[in-house]
Amino acid sequence: MTQANAQPAVPMFYSGLTALDPALHLGWGLRGQANFSTAAAANAVPLGVGEFWHASAHYPIVFGPAGVTGFPIAITALVEGRNLFVDAAGQWLPDSYVPAWLRRYPFWMQPDPDGQNASFWFDPHAQQVVPLHEYADARPLFDYQGNPNQALAQIVQFCQQCQNDANHTYAFMQALEQHRLLVDRQATVELSAGQPYSLGGFRMVDMEAYHRLPDAVLGSWVRKGWASLVALHHMSVQQNWQRLLALHRSQNG
Length: 253
Description:
21% strand; SapC family protein; SapC
């Protein structure tokens, strides 16, 4: 971690960011278990390419609209305002993959412009980073010398993994955009008898255009692992809309 410089933009699902500083937070700790209430109303959650394998078993994996976000997203709801995977207590649906974006919360790593270092932040509204003298059950973030304790070291390592995956994801998205493979799509499902509903605002890979790529390009994609990502994306949208529909119906009578 380095000293925080410019305040980063507040990420999706965060309410604000405060720089984590050993000089200010030496006597602070991390309390509580993971809670996903911040995403309870989300119908989509960002994904990294390193998550496709696990996420493809649970969610349709699609891509954000052009000019808004280039990152892949996991669809978590069929209607606005109700994440099918978060219950009233803020717990994720058992046996379903939790995207790293949410597992990282309330922490955030912001790379410096040169990419060599990064500053570390947390959402103060989460009430998970707290003074130790107020919460005896909190796990200390720093030792007495201001060095990260085990709890914080593990979080920093995970955030570094997320950042590395974000870099790989950016490269993959650049290739998709370069070859103009992403097209606008929408899904239409019947929430109940006689009640069709269309969900749009996302893009998918045009598989016909993908298969028309030159052999040299396809070969490069196979070597980079990108061909597998396209296959997982395609498989996920083929099989998981019905999974979401079954969840929606079970939770809405």
